[in-house]
Amino acid sequence: MTNSSNEKIISDRHPYASIYGMSQNPKLAILVLGIGSLLVSLATAAQAGVMAGGYNFLNFDGPGFGTNAGAGTNMNGIANNGAAVGVGISNTGTFTNFVRNPNGSFTTLNINGSTTAMAFGINSAGNVVGAVGGTAFYLPFGGTAQSLTTLGSGSAAFGINDMGNIVGQFTQSGGTMPGFFLPSNSSVALTTINAPSGPNTVNAQGINNNGLIVGFYVGNDGQAHGFLGLVANAVGGTLTGTAIADPTIPPVVGEPGATFVFSQVLGVNDHGIAVGYYGDSTTSQHGFFYNTLTGQYTFLDDPSAAFNNGVEVTQITGITNSGEITGFYSDANGVFHGFVASPVPEPASLTLAGAGLLATWLAKRRAKAATDLHG
Asked: Would you list the DSSP string of 284-315?
C-alpha cells in the first residue's frame, strides 16, 4: 500500500566540530559529536512536520481514502505504543479500516469483509474495537473479529485500554442508549454507565489503565457534553457519570462572534489528560485537551486545517501516556486527513540532556585518570 503521507526523512548532521576543537581531543570530540548529533536530530525531528501549540504534526492519508468533500481519512484512537487506528472513506462512502503503525506504515483490517464497519479504539497489544452491522466487535491482534454478544444489537465499542477493558454504548430494552464497561471481551459482567442528566444517551469513548472513563452524553438542551467516571465508583453494576464543565471557547480567526454549542471528550491517558473537540455556532469544530485533575482546557487545531464554505474541522481523538495525539482535520475542499502529533521537547531540556551526558563522561574520565595515576 502506498503511503501518501507528507512525512519527511530526517538526516543527522554534525555542524559543531570546529567549535569544540575536535582535532585536539579525539575522544572528547566523539562524545561531543554524539551529543551534537542527538540535539540536532531532535531539533530536526521537531521541524519534520508542521509546528503548532508545542506539537509537531504529521499529516497523512490512509488506505482507501477518497478525494471528494466528506471523504478522506478519519483517525479514531491511539495506543500507548503509538499505533493508531482509523478508517479511509472512499468517494462512494465505503470504509477501509486500518492501523497506522508507529513506523508510519499501514496495516489494513478485515472486519468480517464489511465495507461499513468502523474501528474506533486500539490498545498496545494491537487489539481493536469498533462496530459492524450495528453490533460492537472486538478484533484481537492477528485474529478474527468477534461480536460482543453480551451487548446485543444497537451497540458500539469505542475504547479499549491495555488491560483489555472495553467501553462503548448499547441499547436497552426501553430504547435508552447508556454507556457500558466490560472488564474484557469475554466478560458478561456488564456495567451500565448512565448520564449525569438528560435522556440517558451516553457515549463512553475512552478508558485509561486506572479505570477512568471519559465520553459524552446528550444533555437536557439536546446537545453533547463531556463526562467522566471511575469504574471503582460503580454500585450494583451501574455507574453514573460526572458532568465535565463546558469550555469557554477562545476567539478563532475567521469565526467572529462564534459561540459554544457542544463538546465531545474522546480519549484519556493515565495522567488524566483527556482530549476531544467542541463545535461552535459556525458549525466548525476545534480540538482541545482537558486536564481532569485541574479542570483546565487547552485548545489546539491541526495547522493545516482550512475553511471550506466557512467551516473548518479539527478533532483530537486519542492521546498516549507520552502525550502523542491523533485525530483528523478538513482541508479547503472539505476532504479529511489524519494526523499524529508529538509534543516538542523544550530547547533548554535538550541542552541540559546533552550537558548531563557530557558531565557523566567527564566524571568517568577523571576517575579513570586518578586510577591510572595511583595504580
From this structure: -EEEEEEETTT--EEE---TT---BTTB-BEE
Cα–Cα nearest to 146, from 167, 129, 169, 168: 129
Region label for 26, one of left (φ > 0), alpha (ψ between -120 and 50) or beta (otherwise): alpha
Count CA atoms within 13 Å of residue 305 on its CB side.
Answer: 26
What pLDDT shows up at residue 164?
98
Q: Could you give the C-alpha distances from 175 to 36, 167, 170, 201, 236, in angstroms and in order?
A: 63, 19, 10, 10, 21
- Give 170-183 pLDDT, tens digit per residue: 999 888 999 999 99
Phi, psi dihedrals of residue 355, rounded to the nearest 5°: -65, -35
Cell numbers representing residue 335 in the block: 476532504
The answer to whether 290 and 273 are in contact (CB under 8 A) is: yes
Whether 42 contacts 66, CB under 8 Å: no
What CATH number was assigned to the domain covering residues 60-343?
Answer: 2.120.10.30
Does residue 367 come out as left (phi exceeding 0), alpha (psi in the -120 to 50 range) or beta?
alpha
What residue type is assigned to position 11 of the chain?
A: S
Model pLDDT for residues 223-258, shown as the tens digit of each residue: 999 999 999 999 999 999 999 999 999 999 999 999
Q: Which of 21-30, 136-145, 194-203, 362-371 has the lowest mean pLDDT?
A: 21-30
Domain borders along the chain are 26-46+353-374, 60-343
For residue 121, how many C-alpha atoms fall within 13 Å in the half-sphere facing its CB? 27
DSSP state at residue 373: H
